[in-house]
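Feature request, filed as a ticket because there's no other form

It would be nice if the structure record came with a short human-readable summary line next to the tokens. Right now we just get the raw output. Example of a typical job, pasted below so the devs can see what we mean:
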Amino acid sequence: MRLMSRKRCRQRQRCRRRIGNCGSVALVAKRENLPGQKDDNYQVVRGISPPDLPEDILRHIHAKMTLRDAARAACASHTFQRSWICFPNLTFSPKTLGLNGNASTDVITRDLISKVDQILQNHSGIGVKTLNLDLLECGNIDFSYVDSWLHIAVTPGIEELILSPPLVTFSVYNFPCSLLSNGSGNSIQYLELGRCTLHATVGLGCLRSLTRLHMFRVRTSGDELWCLLSNSSALVHLELWYCKEIISLKIPSLQRFRFLDVVQCDSLQEVESNAPNLTKFRYSGLLGQISLGGSLQVKTLRMICPSQTNILCWYAHNLLSIAPNVETLTISSSSETVNTPMLSGKFLHLKHLEILLVGMAAYDYLSLVSFLDASPHLEKFVLAIKQHRMEHDSILGGPSHDLRQIREQRYDKLKNVKISGFCSVKSLVELTCHILENTTSLDCLTLDTTSWYLRCSVTKSSKCYPLMDRDSLVEAQKALLAIRRYVLGKVPSMVKLNILEPCSLCHTVEPLM
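Raw output as currently delivered:
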């Protein structure tokens, strides 16, 4: 019995060394040495082969498993054990490696380094399709380990590379661009880099298969990014989030390029795209000079610029030249000291317009008709309003309740209108009535008095989130009263009217008289 016990112990140790002690391999290795017994999850035991299938099919099945399941299968099958040395999908994180999430950061870092080292030392480096290094939960890691792992796994044939260095570290990782110059870059289709520096040069290898590039808090310059993009002729999708050292972003004439997403790149002063087939552009942050090369293909445009004053005026004067054929437009503002002027031209293809307004003190909402008048084929209009406190004149008070009348403009295509954060502001009521009086095609009008609060019907906690404060509840009741007095009588019988008011289950609502 002792001899058998020592033999089993040696077998388990060899199994751990071969597989890299990944996840629960020790437990599986123990199970596999129990003759005649089956594991709960696998129908194989030590020395018994999986179903009699060609080896290439078994390799394909093995490749579809998660890292932990693949390691377990390799413990239980000689066939899977042979395919382990070229397992294609390597995703390393504390979770995938089965590390104790309650341990200290130092312990998690030490154990992750040990396990990744063991796994990659037993991997041939051949056949890797995906490498995902998720080190966010680690502490101050020695980046020489990261360099070593990348050089083992990033080989010709790799298709997806994701690198997420630790959140807390004494230094910033310098991504070795030389990895992409030895032929490995030719096969990469998806590249995601976070919290590192990237110094691409003219000598960078060709990334002829790269279709999607995502960079998060990457320290790189506009010129270095240009070198990278110039070598990526197949690029379709580019995302730049919080890359604060880019001053000028220039997109080469990439024929396949379709999607550009720029988020809070605070130093950015210029965006220039020469890609002729760009169809979707999303921008968030401080607004500088934007030129999309007169692209007639931009169909979706989203611009969120919360920190700039009178940005609606900028939109009114410039959007037509940026994207004249846009079909879906989303714009936002949080500081307007003047009303929105009339547009000089028409959005002849615009079908969906969404305007987000936050904290707009003293703004005349009726001036938004300039966007409606410039959109003759508009089908859906969404206006979302969030006010920190009520600073407008309510239509329920003041010396005059007469609604202003402006020149008639027919909206013959408009079918769906939603106003979120509807309140008793006089100019907002006037805008609503103007739409009702000039839209013959309207099917549905939704007036939501709860602003951007999530209702208990959609939250996991079964409570509205966040709960509305007293001032918001009072204003919601004023909005309901304004709807009854000024809006209801103008709603045609064929129009469906949806009025959303504060949830009575989560809020104590006292109706106004």
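Something like this underneath would help us a lot:
The mean pLDDT is 82.
The chain has twelve helices and 20 strands.
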